[in-house]
Amino acid sequence: MKDDVFRLMQALLGVISPNFRMVYISNTQKVCITVILEKESAEDREEIQDMATEFEALQPKSIDYDIVIKVDSRDINWPDDESIVVYKRREDL
């Protein structure tokens, strides 16, 4: 999974806006990339699609993965132990 984490980090370069709260990746049965946004944004959704295309292009072979986009301004919990956080916005308490 560490290779997927590295590829996701590369794909995220230049994509993250101030609206991004957290991005994490998990690989239980297939790779799942979760992006949490603070508010709905068509521009950010387009950037996420570009990131997905880049992530797929960086793979050495075909990959089965999902992207989950959540929009939530409430406090967010750290994901489970099976997930690796790639980006977490610093938020004031």
Explain what this protein looks like in three dimensions.
Helix 2 links the parallel strand 2 and strand 3. The chain contains 2 helices and 4 strands, in the order αββαββ. Strands 3-2-1-4 form a 4-stranded mixed sheet, with helices on one face. It has one domain (about 1-90): Beta Polymerase, domain 2. Helix 1 crosses helix 2 (about 40-55). Helices cover about 30% and strands about 30% of the residues. It is globular. With about 90 residues, it is α+β, with helices and mostly antiparallel strands. The model has no long low-confidence stretch (mean pLDDT about 95).
How is this fold's topology laid out?
Elements: H1 2-12, E1 20-27, E2 31-37, H2 42-57, E3 65-71, E4 83-88
Parallel strand pairs: 2-3
Antiparallel strand pairs: 1-2, 1-4
List keywords for this structure.
93 residues; alpha+beta; four-stranded mixed β-sheet; globular
Taking all Cα atoms into account, the compactness measure Rg is 13 Å
Overall pLDDT confidence: 94
Give the biggest sheet: 4 strands, mixed
N-C termini distance: 32 Å
How many domains make up the coordinates? 1
Secondary-structure-derived class: alpha+beta
- Strands in their spatial order, largest beta sheet: 3-2-1-4
Number of helices: 2
Percentage of residues in DSSP E strands: 25-35%
Q: In total, how many beta strands?
A: 4
CATH class assignment: Alpha Beta
What is the share of helical residues? 25-40%
